[in-house]
Amino acid sequence: MKPRIVVTVDLERDFPNGLHGSYLGITEGLPNLRGVLEELDVLADFFVSQEVAERFGTAIRDLKAKGHYLGSHGSQHGYLCKMDAKAQYQDISKSTETLSELLSSRPVFFRAPQFGADGNTIMALEDLGYQVDSSVLPGRLVRQRFFRKVLDFTDAPLGVYNPSHEDITKEGQSPIVEIPLTENSLRRGTPLGMGFVNSEGAEAAIAASRANKGEYITFLIHPWECIDIVESFPHLPRHLANECSSDMSDFRRMLEELLDLGESTNLVHLANEYKGVKTQ
After folding, report:
1. According to CATH, what is the number of the domain 4-276?
2. Residues 49-92: tens digit of each pLDDT
3. How do the residues of the chain divide into helix, strand and coil, expressed in percent and rounded to 5?
4. pTM
5. Per residue in 199-230, is it b (16+ CB within 10 Å) or e — as a string?
6. What does the DSSP 8-state code read for residue 47?
7. Is 254 helix (H, G, I), strand (E, B) or coil?
8. HSE-up of 107 (CA within 13 Å, CB side)?
9. Cα(80)–Cα(100) distance, rounded to whole angstroms?
10. Domain boundary assignment for the chain
11. FRET label pair with 79: which of 19, 34, 41, 143, CA 20 to 30 Å apart?
């Protein structure tokens, strides 16, 4: 059986850990990306941060009008898992209300900034009426000061599951459906996404996709990866010169191959998938 393909886009400010107040990805990268998606008649799942929703409401409403699916990407770009349960709820609630007012409908799927979710995140999502989370990146391990673990998804399931309130990487009783991102089989702990396509080319990305063992291929895109961002900000890490490009030809070729266009029944959307998942 062909894997289900989910094209996901995190709408946030440019390179959040290195820039402040820049949104070239939204103003320039998003049109580049939409050009390819619309040319191939592909609808994507967009995770919208609160700051993008507040600044670019017209663009977000237009995505909905074109049939794309819109979920939440939180209120700020820190690790939710470093907050207590109350602070997490407040953060997610703020972004939820902003999107609800903007779109006249409540979002039902969520992705934590920097994949920084834990059991408290899941409980907050339940309370706020969410149905699907896509924050877990199997293989991901993040340590910060004094080598303290911030998150550890090294043993997280590859397939769909209902997470535990105690440990988001374990199966549990939550009604939330966790659809993990796809780990890049060629780069442990990193997502299969646009940065890899830009740096390594379409064929390498197709090979990494075919090596995926999960039911889903959840592909990750940041709009700032769809522009030549280092030309505008030369101080950024040099690897971004390879990982960010306005040339969308490799992405287009990879997407055509993955979807086998003309028979693209394997393209799915997170907002619909929870209905077909058997929860515990």
Report:
1. 3.20.20.370
2. 999 999 999 999 999 999 999 999 999 878 999 999 999 999 99
3. 40, 15, 45
4. 0.94
5. bbebebbbebbeebebebbbbbbbbbbbbebb
6. E
7. helix
8. 34
9. 21
10. 4-276
11. 34
